[in-house]
Amino acid sequence: MAATSAVRTVGRRSRRLFDIFVAEVPWTVSSKELKEYFSQFGPVQRCQLPFDKDTGFHRRYCWIKFSTLEDVKNVFQKDSHILEGAKV
């Protein structure tokens, strides 16, 4: 989650969601695993892991949506995030 990380606030129906962009997601990691991992920092509202229609594989990046800024801060307090041996 180094230099490619970003946070944005999205207003939806008077509800705010906070997105974290995660890059370098290993091919073998699923959206369920991502959601489980990031849930340790706060409730994950949604995990978007886009897939390539031609290859059938995900594109190695995702957005994790939290409902509070505090949850996002919790993610960034950890120095590095390792999933299946790879730093994301």
TrEMBL record:
Keyword ATP-binding recorded: no
SMART domains for this protein: RRM
Gene Ontology BP terms: regulation of gene expression
Keyword RNA-binding applies: yes
Localization of this protein: Nucleus
Domain of life: Eukaryota
A single GO molecular function term of this UniProt record: RNA binding
Gene Ontology CC entries for this record: chromatin; nucleoplasm
Principal subcellular localisation of the protein: nucleus
Matching Gene3D superfamilies: 3.30.70.330
Keywords associated with the record: Nucleus, RNA-binding
Domain RRM: 18-88
Annotated PANTHER family: RNA-BINDING (RRM/RBD/RNP MOTIFS) FAMILY PROTEIN, TAR DNA-BINDING PROTEIN 43
Protein's name according to its UniProt entry: SLIRP protein
Organism of derivation: Lophotis ruficrista
